[in-house]
Design goal:
By secondary structure, the chain is an alpha+beta fold. It is 22% helix and 31% strand.
Length: 190
């Protein structure tokens, strides 16, 4: 169904080099933002002074997890989302929500989208599909995603390292951890 919703007239979804067409990425970003708005409105937020929000939603049957990092709706900072946006070493593209960046594992088992929503702050979303690279669990909600080898190197090259040959991130709530090296990419939500 998503494939039909994202079809763009007679333009193929993938270019000859295997990357998605820019129009497809922008339409997918639009669809994801609508889906995330629906998901976010269905969640109950607990106030945390001066913190952003990191939320997880496990889809029915545990086939997909959506992790969203953003500024709290009534208060807080968007430092985590802004840090993730700035860490992405890819070109920002314009969308109706403002500038956005996109990183995806080549089999699309992990998509990382960040956007600068202007006065509404930054927002980042990780969509993790059930795959050989991921473990998605409920009660409590947990996600572990790990790549090694050439695909880990490809993701690493799309990030600005925080230290020599390493990118590391931990959110303010200590629930989301990301570590990337040329040999390994690991994301955990707990």
């Amino acid at each position: 169904m998503l494939h039909r919703m994202c079809a763009l007239d007679d333009k193929p979804l993938l270019r000859d080099d295997g990357l998605m067409n820019k129009a497809y990425v922008l339409k997918l970003t639009r669809i994801l933002s609508i889906a995330l708005s629906i998901i976010a409105s269905s969640l109950i937020f607990s106030p945390r002074p001066a913190l952003g929000e990191t939320l997880i939603r496990i889809m029915p049957l545990g086939n997909q997890a959506v992790i969203t990092v953003h500024k709290g709706y009534t208060h807080g900072s968007d430092r985590d989302a802004q840090t993730l946006f700035m860490a992405m070493n890819v070109q920002a593209q314009e969308s109706y929500l403002g500038p956005g960046k996109f990183i995806a594992e080549s089999q699309k088992s992990m998509n990382w989208v960040c956007g600068d929503r202007g006065t509404s702050g930054y927002q980042c979303t990780f969509m993790i599909q059930k795959s050989a690279f991921s473990r998605i669990g409920t009660n409590p909600d947990r996600v572990s995603y790990e790549l090694i080898g050439a695909e880990a190197l490809r993701i690493f090259e799309m990030l600005h390292p925080t230290n020599d040959e390493v990118f590391q991130f931990q959110n303010e709530e200590s629930s989301l951890f990301i570590e990337s090296t040329p040999a390994r990419f690991k994301l955990e939500y707990r």
